[in-house]
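Sync notes, pocket subgroup
Present: LS, DG
LS reminded everyone that the earlier model was apo-only. Rerun requested with pyridoxal-5'-phosphate included. Inputs:
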Amino acid sequence: MTLAQRCKNVMPPMANRVTDLGIVKGEGCYLYTDDGRKILDFAAGIGVCNLGHNYPDVVEAAKAQMDQLVHGCHNLVYYEPYVKLAEKLVELTGGNTKLYFCNSGAEAVDGALKLAKYVSGRPAVIGFKGAFHGRTMGAATMTASNSAYRKNIETGLMNNVYHLDYPYLLHTPYPYDGVHTPEFYFRQFDELFSKLVSPDRVACILMEPVQGEGGYIVPPKDWMVYVRELCDKYGIFLIYDEVQSGFGRTGKMFAQEHFSIRPDIMTCAKGIANGLPLSAIIAKAEIMDQWPAGAHGGTFGGNPVSCAAANATIKVLESGVVDNAAKMGDYLMEQLKKIKEKYPCIAEVRGLGLMIGVELLDENGTPMTALASKIQKDALDEGLFILTCGSYKNCFRFIAPLIVTENEIDTAVAIVDRVLEKNCQ
Ligand SMILES: Cc1ncc(COP(=O)(O)O)c(C=O)c1O
């Protein structure tokens, strides 16, 4: 029996995963299955294995740490890999920050919301439609990419949360000249502040600097600058969720660098330790310093093995892998744009670095959800693992490991081309 056939004793959506791949080994950009297949992995564990699978330096660092100390508990004691990682992340985020380590993206998002509320003393929070921030109660409240994530738990969600429109300009109902962001996306804040909540009651604005699950949407820079200015004007904390966009994914260490904007608080996870569970809340020091004992904490956060893996991961990222992500991202974008010319169903190819999505619409502008999932399935049959995304699930996305080569991109693009040709006649 395959692993997929044996795995029926977990909750049904987990038993029926996106694929029926049973994985016995991962190495670089490849996964190896229990039925002998070698798969080119452009999913990277949903943007986690940024250095590819089982990167030797990271594996070695984790193994060496296991010989020294597996768990200490950061509420109780100090240990070297934790302190070293904190020093490094502060350096990478401007030098005047402090941080708190946790285990998952959602946990970091919940903690960031708590921090903003605690320090500001304000009740309200602003998020964006299309966002994905995770599945714990706080994160699920902020998630607005699919109502399924909120269904039947509505009464447990946070109150005083307002979701505004993220500038998803391919679908904007407002006049758009392709250059200037429609006024609506700026004006909606005034509307909210004048009609629903006073800005001095808003603790934070939480956003992904590139929307991930919502469709790999890159917001316009003028709008990002406007939101930063708005936060400064009203003393609202700006939180960037860099869980998916961080650690080199967009061709820079953090996506915020593309906009030259620093948030007050940020969250990161996924790629931080190349596969070991770890996340962080990073905030300006003057904010983090106001969180007193008892307000936040956790048993497993900043596990020594995960921190050792993160230190090794960051060292390798800085040795040229982030630059490779920028270069290979440009190359993949170029190849996909060539393919777009052949297939009218491709409405847009977009993204930053190696965070690239392809959106499918029919001639009436209707999302082609079934086609996106067929492309994903057929590509997998041909040995390429890609994922779908988008509020309408009509995009497929490329989250290749950042060590990917031109040859591997050529292989992936050739498969996608073949699969589109087969399905788009
Ligand atoms: C932007 C963003 N935030 C938060 C999360 C939640 O992270 P986790 O699944 O580790 O809780 C995700 C996961 O996909 C994400 O993409």
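DG: The chain has a mean pLDDT of 96.
LS: The CA atoms of residues 343 and 424 lie 7 Å apart.
Action: DG to write up.
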